[in-house]
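U., I forgot to send this yesterday:
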Amino acid sequence: MVSTSGRKLRIGHLADLHIGSSYHLGDEDAGGVNFRLRDFESACLRACDGMIAAKVDLCVIAGDIFDNPKPTPTEIAVFLRMLDRLQDYEITVVMTQGNHESPRQVGRKNAVEMFDDREFYESGRGNVLVVGRPEVVEAHGVAVACLPYPMRAHVAANDPEFAKLTIDEQNERIVELSLKTLHMLGAKAEQKKTTFGSVLVAHGAISGSKVAHTETRFFREPVIPLSELQGLPFRCQCWGHLHMPQVLSPGIAYSGSIEACDFSEGTHKHGWWLITLDENPDLDEMEFREVEARPLVDVDLADWGPADWRCAVENVIAKNEIAGSIVRVKYKATLDIRKTIDDGEIKRALLDAGAVKVHGPIVETIHTASERTNTVTEEDDMQTAWQQFLVLQGVDGPRATRLTEKVLKAMEVVNA
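Result:
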């Protein structure tokens, strides 16, 4: 089938920007700004450039723009630069909030309300609209239904019995309310009679979706059944909250995070969805547009097998994209093997290979059977007991020497 008029609407769907996230993985630059903030800003601007190149008409952001409900001025400036980039090309932005930027206290403003330009938007002079409650707005001939993340404290404020429920019962109540709200939004959207129908922008967890190495059925939070969403009247559903990009059903998708927030996301793709709505719904299209992100490489030297740890490090460097990456390295070793390994040399080798930051090595000490039976008994004198305690705890080298000196001094005071 072909479109009757050839008219199309291009929508850019992204979510989970998490501006201000993962500072613990980076360091401050000469200007006092953590380079991880620069990483997130670069990823956001690359997404904007991709939307500009794709001639997107409407950008929808499905929550978790900030990592904290109280973003710093520097973090706010990062998002403003992103909005300015889109505004330069007259791309309309409609956003709702996720759980990260929403305050737990009822009545307090969320972190994205400051960007709302509703007065100017409705008069045709602005292009940014923040939807902080379940609502349907119009943009470019499409009805945009927004469902912010249902904060537990906000539900409790309107339901005196809510706090008395168990966590599972509370989740069931929230899912019930969310579905009721979604059906209400769908009905309102259909009443708009817009050229391109309606789309949903929402933040939350859906059954069957995946993140990192688990599924949403393991979450202790409200999980909306996918089957309930499939019957809603929206042309597409743009979801945020889970950081792995995925399509759960035709037209129902998570865009995932724009940049890896931790090592569990280091192997994910990051980016946004280009959604093209045609006046003929049979011609709707969705295409994932990947955005280059900082590689997070999580390596375990024990996985490589060789007894020579230097060979294990060489294998890691050969088999991973180390240049420009943040690396976390760990290994397991007995006390005797640990004495032969130079953690500093491991770190230097990874930095020489181009890593911008190395975390670790994180060492798990493997105790032998004889070491495990070398317990502290009541018959041991204090010095013997202390030495056995150090063995059991896997403490050796300079740290053990420093601690022993302190213990000996304490013993002198006790015996004086």
